[in-house]
C-alpha cells in the first residue's frame, strides 16, 4: 500500500513540474495571431453612443478594414439612430473587403522590362529663354500622360523629365537671332528611378540621341539707306513658351518597378 502511494506522489510531482516547462518552451511560431475584426454598422453606432466625436469615428473608419451594410434600409436606420451624415458618408465610401484586397495588390510593385525606344510625351514646365539660360542649365519637363507596359504603369502622369542646355546664344546686333539647343537627359520612372532618354526614336551612337534646336527667325536684311538703322536693331531672342510638347524615347533597355493593375479574385 505504501509503495502504491509513493508511486502516485512521484507521478504527480513529475507531471506538475514538466507541464509548465513544456508550455514555456513551446515554439513561438505556433502562436497564432487573429486578424483584426472588420468594422460593422453596430461598431459605428456603439462608438457614437460611447461619446466619441464623429471626427474620431470617421478616422477610425478610414484606417480600419470594414464590412458595412450600406443598403437603403440600413442607411435609413443609421440616420434614425442619430448617426451624423459625415459618418454615414465615410461608411458608404469605405472600400469593401474585395476592394481592400485589390488596393493592397495594386500597391505591390511589379518589375517589368522597358524596351529601348519606348515613347513618352513630355511638355515644358517653364518658359525657356536664350537670354537667361546657359550651357549646362537644366530644363524641366513633365510627363503628359501615364505609360503602361503589359498593364503595369512605368511612367506616371506629371512625373518629371529633364534636358540640359547644349547651346545658348543671346540675340545680337544686325538682327542676329538668339538660339537654344538642348539634349534630353532623363525621365522619372514610377519607382522614382531616373531613366536615360533621347529625342530620337532610334539611337544615333550618341548617348544624347540628338538635340532639339530652337532659333528665332530674323527678317531679311534691308539694303540702302535703312541698312545702317537695321544694323543697330537687336535680333529676336529664342524664347520657348511653357507647355510646348515633345516626344522622347527611352535610351536603352531598362527595368522599372511599376504599379500593377489590381486583380480581384
Write up this protein.
By secondary structure, this protein is α+β, with helices and mostly antiparallel strands. It folds into 2 domains: 41-94, no CATH class; 110-260, Type IV secretion system, VirB10/TraB/TrbI (Lipocalin, Beta Barrel), CATH 2.40.128.260. 29% of the residues lie in helices and 27% in strands. It is built from 7 helices and 13 strands. The strands form 3 sheets. Strands 2-4-7-8-9-12 form a 6-stranded antiparallel β-barrel. The protein has a 4-stranded antiparallel β-sheet with strand order 1-13-6-5. It has a two-stranded antiparallel ribbon with strand order 3-11. Helix 3 (54-63) packs parallel to helix 5. The longest helix has 23 residues, at 2-24. The radius of gyration is 35 Å and the shape is elongated. The two termini are 69 Å apart.
Quick recap of the structure?
By secondary structure, the chain is α+β, with helices and mostly antiparallel strands. It has seven helices and 13 strands. Helices cover 29% and strands 27% of the residues.
Content-based structural category? alpha+beta
Percent of residues in β-strands: 25-35%
Largest sheet: 6 strands, antiparallel, barrel
Computed Rg: 35 Å
CATH homology-level superfamily of the largest domain: Type IV secretion system, VirB10/TraB/TrbI
SSE ordering = HHHHHHEEEEEEEEEEHEEE
CATH C-level label of the largest domain: Mainly Beta
Q: Could you say what the CATH topology of the largest domain is called?
A: Lipocalin
Q: What is the mean predicted local confidence, pLDDT?
A: 76
Number of helices: 7
Low-confidence stretches: 1-33, 215-230
Q: Label the overall shape.
A: elongated
Number of beta-strand segments: 13
Instruction: Give the CATH architecture of the largest domain.
Output: Beta Barrel
Strand arrangement across the biggest beta sheet: 2-4-7-8-9-12
Question: What is the terminal separation in angstroms?
Answer: 69 Å
Helix content: 25-40%
How many structural domains can be distinguished in the coordinates?
A: 2
Amino acid at each position: 500500500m505504501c509503495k502504491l502511494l509513493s508511486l502516485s506522489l512521484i507521478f504527480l510531482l513529475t507531471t506538475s513540474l514538466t507541464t509548465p516547462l513544456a508550455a514555456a518552451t513551446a515554439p513561438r511560431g505556433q502562436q497564432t495571431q487573429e486578424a483584426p475584426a472588420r468594422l460593422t454598422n453596430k461598431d459605428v453606432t456603439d462608438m457614437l453612443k460611447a461619446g466619441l466625436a464623429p471626427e474620431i469615428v470617421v478616422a477610425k473608419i478610414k484606417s480600419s478594414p470594414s464590412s458595412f451594410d450600406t443598403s437603403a434600409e440600413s442607411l435609413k436606420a443609421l440616420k434614425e439612430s442619430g448617426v451624423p451624415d459625415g459618418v454615414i458618408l465615410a461608411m458608404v465610401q469605405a472600400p469593401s473587403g474585395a476592394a481592400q484586397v485589390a488596393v493592397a495588390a495594386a500597391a505591390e510593385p511589379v518589375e517589368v522590362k522597358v524596351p529601348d525606344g519606348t515613347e513618352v510625351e513630355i511638355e515644358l514646365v517653364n518658359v525657356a529663354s536664350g537670354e537667361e539660360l546657359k550651357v549646362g542649365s537644366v530644363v524641366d519637363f513633365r510627363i503628359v500622360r501615364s505609360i503602361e507596359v503589359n498593364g503595369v504603369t512605368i511612367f506616371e502622369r506629371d512625373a518629371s523629365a529633364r534636358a540640359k542646355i547644349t547651346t545658348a546664344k543671346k540675340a545680337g546686333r544686325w538682327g542676329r537671332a538668339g538660339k537654344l539647343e538642348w539634349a534630353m537627359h532623363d525621365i522619372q520612372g514610377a519607382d522614382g528611378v531616373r531613366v536615360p532618354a533621347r529625342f530620337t526614336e532610334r539611337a544615333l551612337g550618341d548617348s544624347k540621341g540628338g538635340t532639339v534646336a530652337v532659333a528665332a527667325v530674323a527678317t531679311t536684311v534691308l539694303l540702302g539707306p535703312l541698312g545702317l538703322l537695321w544694323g543697330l536693331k537687336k535680333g529676336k531672342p529664342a524664347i520657348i513658351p511653357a507647355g510646348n510638347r515633345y516626344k522622347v524615347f527611352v535610351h536603352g533597355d531598362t527595368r522599372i518597378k511599376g504599379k500593377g493593375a489590381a486583380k480581384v479574385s
